[in-house]
Amino acid sequence: MESDKKWDLISIASIPLIMTLGNSMLIPVLPAIRTRLGITSLQVSLLITVYSAVAIVLIPVAGYLSDRYGRKAVIIPSLIATALGGLLSGLASWWMPHPYALILGGRVLQGIGAAGSAPIVLPLIGDIFKRESDVSQGLGIVETSNTFGKVLSPILGSFLASFIWFLPFLFIPIFCSISILMVAFLVKSPEKKEEPPEFKQFLKSVKFIFTEKGRWLYAIFAIGVICMFVIFGTLFYLSDELERLFNLKGVLKGAVLAIPLAALCLASFFTGKAIGKNKPLMKWLTFIGTVLLTAAVFGCGMIHSIPWIIALLCLAGIGMGLILPCLDAFITEGIQKEQRGTITSIYSSMRFIGVALGPPVASVLLGVSHHVMFYTISGACLLAALISLFAIHPHANDKPPGGSGKYEPSEGKGHDKLKIRIG
Question: What pLDDT, on the 0 to 100 scale, is given for residue 44?
Fold first, then answer.
């Protein structure tokens, strides 16, 4: 990897880490928030749901704005919005007797910030690094940072809340301030060589991308949704069972929840280093990862021993660690720079859908039985394996399936046509 880009990468990797902390730190604290505020389980769950819902809607908008005005021009204001959201929620909790409405408003601000920060990281990596092997390695480090945030979140959130229940809110602005300074001063965005397209032409180019590359793009979107659904659905189950069967709470429960995520984190790191620009390897690692994920989750449905389920979820984490860096590399390297921000942002939005669906769907299925929950989730994993096998067909020396095109308007009768130029 280019040595002069080391601090750029470290600064960029801080963004998904902090965004993950900003959301997932609250998960182990939700029971305490519910008790302190005297609100219902539905009301406290909205603190997570509203964050994801706002991000899902705004992520594609942020992607377009980053394509048009630059990555840092979107990322830095978004990090500021996230910091202000945490500050609003924390101060309302501190100073007001009934702060729920303002806490919810702060979470809306954080969702806006999340939409314009973490999803823009993928195209920014593609912009900064020239060699495909460096892009793949950078994406692996970013995915590792994202996963490390998930590992750290339950432990750190529980630790901070053990002092003051709303302290996790107040630490979000501190984390964001560090990332803002790093991105502002250490990340050198490449200069735009061409004027970005007008919105109408931009929409035509995006439509053309989905027309030409829809098969593998939809495949990657679907696999990304399923992976996030599996992560958050199984962690919801594990969190509930640890408390119900073993009375594990606080930092200790967070540490146990972090074990499968640590396996995912390590696998993501080594996968990112290994795949380089080898597209066939990415395809087969994705397939192997989905098969491993399917087998591990199916195995969880056959047993009731929590230690064995944790061991199988570690195998599932390794499977996802093989999958996610490959998906990031495919989607970042397969899209021309002018549309990269929007397409990768749609991908990130799809992943947020998986995050939002995981806990409630797992809860409903678990109400039927332990077996139904795990067998249904393993069925989704099997679908991901079939999609990766039949819908992704890279070539050894080419860009990801469908090639990479640069879109230009050309004149035609009564309407604009699009043509594709390779290179």
Answer: 80
> 419 — phi, psi (to 5°)?
-130, 160
Surface-to-core class of residue 226, CB atoms within 10 Å of its CB (0-12 exposed, 13-18 middle, 19+ buried): buried
Query: Taking residues 4-12, what's their average pLDDT?
Result: 87
**Cα 334 from Cα 404, distance rounded (Å):** 6
Q: Which long-range contacts (CB under 8 A, 24 or more apart) does 386-390 make?
A: 387/219, 387/222, 387/223, 388/219, 388/223, 388/283, 388/286, 388/287, 388/290, 388/323, 389/287
Domains of the chain with CATH codes? 3-187+197-422 (1.20.1250.20)
Q: What are the C-alpha distances in Å from 384 to residues 257, 295, 309, 323, 401?
A: 24, 12, 21, 10, 18
Query: Which of 171, 151, 82 shows the shortest CA–CA distance to 120?
Result: 82
pLDDT tens digits, 332-374: 777 776 677 778 778 888 888 887 788 778 878 888 898 999 9
Cβ pair 141, 10 in contact under 8 A: no
In whole angstroms, what is the distance from residue 272 CA to residue 27 CA?
28
Residue with tokens 């823009």: 120
Give the model's pLDDT for residue 338: 65
Distance CA 132, CA 355 (A): 29
Q: Which runs of consecutive H residues, i.e. helices, occur in 25-70?
A: 30-37, 41-69
Average pLDDT of the segment spanning 24-50: 82
Q: Would the pTM count as exceeding 0.90?
A: no
pLDDT the model gives residue 37: 92
Whole-number mean pLDDT of the chain? 83
Helices (H), 97-198: 100-115, 121-128, 132-161, 167-186
- Asked if 17 contacts 143 with a C-beta cutoff of 8 angstroms, the reply is no
277, amino acid identity: K
Q: What is the full DSSP assignment across 191-260?
A: PP-SPPPPHHHHHHHHHHHHHHHHHHHHHHHHHHHHHHHHHHHHHHHHHHHHHHHH---HHHHHHHHHHH
Among 200-209, 258-267, 302-311, which is the least confidently predicted range? 200-209
